[in-house]
Amino acid sequence: MPVPAICFDLDGTLVDSLPDIIASQREAIAEHGLPVPPADLVRPLIGLPLEDTFARLAPDGDPAALSASYRRIYPARFTRSSAPFAEVPEVLATLRERGWLLAVTTTKGTAMARDLVTALGLAEHLDHVQGTDGFPAKPAPHVIHRALGALGAEGSWMVGDTTHDIEAGRAAGLATYAVCRPEATHPRDVLASAAPDRLEESLHGLLALAPAQTS
Predict the structure, then answer these.
(1) Is residue 214 part of a domain?
(2) pTM of the entire structure?
(3) Distances in Å between the alpha carbon of 43 and those of 96, 103, 110, 150, 171?
(4) 12 plus 23 within the same structural domain
(5) How many domains does the chain have?
(6) Residues 6+ apart with CB under 8 A from 76
């Protein structure tokens, strides 16, 4: 029988990386001489594909060119202020000790996602890192299916901080766990509108839902 797996979004779920992402997006827009939106308008769009994000933030710009600028800027600063949320290493380590397979399923490209989890010391707690490489992004379920296929696992939970994560998890047939932290990507009322199976303020609640696996 396949080993059960839990899929996690990365930015805003496992890692407090939004300030570096937002600053990089705003810098990319400024580099093109376009009006720079305030950070609170950028935050709700985190998790969308880059070109979709820039089409909304800078409608007079070229989304492809803005995305190219971001992809150059972000790797130069992606760990400037980013760090795992406080409970994340403990929760991931406990889940793996209990026999769960753990995957990242992110809209980031796979290479950048791997660089981030490695730089922040999370790679040792994960069985697979799956980015969105040339296929539809969340809320489509493709990234989840790719991760589970790579692991040969049966999905159990999708954990994320946006409605895109919740919708993708539901589309993939997983139970959904929404985490709503202070200054979350999507605020509590928006997350609640997606009707996740659980809505919590941290990942600690996941431990009560993921008991030790028996062979």
Answers:
(1) no
(2) 0.94
(3) 31, 24, 22, 31, 24
(4) no
(5) 2
(6) none
